[in-house]
Design brief:
The protein is mainly alpha-helical. The chain is about 90% helix and about 0% strand. It contains three helices and no strands. α2 runs antiparallel to α3. The longest helix is centred in the middle third of the chain and has 57 residues. It is rod-shaped.
């Protein structure tokens, strides 16, 4: 311990530069780990987001089909809304959790 302290005292500049480099390396490593974790989370959510986008498109088509028939009967309107609801409910629940 005495010799290490004596070495550090005699070589203050080199020891301080080495410690700065070591701390910077540790900081960069930590940042890389955090970015990798965030990238994995976003990668896992991407299929759900794509499914939600497809479901929103299906709902828009169903609503447009509903609007095209000005006085469509109730059964047709309910069927169109049920189709849209089936597409949108499941992915949205999975994406929000």
């Amino acid at each position: 311990m005495y010799r290490a302290g004596r070495f550090a005292w005699r070589n203050r500049t080199g020891v301080s530069h080495a410690s700065i480099v070591l701390l910077a390396g540790a900081g960069f490593t930590g940042q890389t780990v955090m970015q990798t974790r965030q990238r994995e989370i976003e990668r896992d959510r991407a299929p759900l987001a794509a499914e939600l986008a497809m479901a929103n498109g299906a709902m828009q088509k169903a609503l447009l089909r509903l609007m095209e028939t000005k006085h469509g009967d109730i059964a047709t309107r309910d069927a169109a809304l049920d189709d849209a609801r089936v597409f949108t409910d499941s992915p949205r629940r999975m994406l929000m959790s």
